[in-house]
Amino acid sequence: MAITLEVLQKIAPQTKVEKLEGFVEGLQEACDKFEINTPSRLACFLAQVGHESGGFNAVKENLNYSAAGLTGTFHKYFPTLESAHPYERNPEAIANR
Fold this sequence. Notes:
This protein is an all-alpha fold. Helix content is 57%, strand content 0%.
C-alpha cells in the first residue's frame, strides 16, 4: 500500500499541501516497517494518525494540563485535585506519570 500526497489530501482536505508533503515519506516508512500493508490496516492507521494530529497539523503532544484538566482527562492517575496539583502545567512530569 502506498502513501501518497493525494491520499493524505483526501483524508485531511483542510490541511495545507505543503504540510502534508512532509508526512508522505515518514508515513510510508512506518507502514513498511510495521506491516501496514492491507487496505484495512492502512485505513485504521491513517484514521488514527489523522485524528490524533488534528488532520496532520499537530506534531507534538500537548500535555500542558491544569489540575482540573488532569483529574478530568486522566482520572485513573489523578483521582483528586490534590494528587494533580504537583503535576499541573508540567508536561514532562505528566508524561512520566
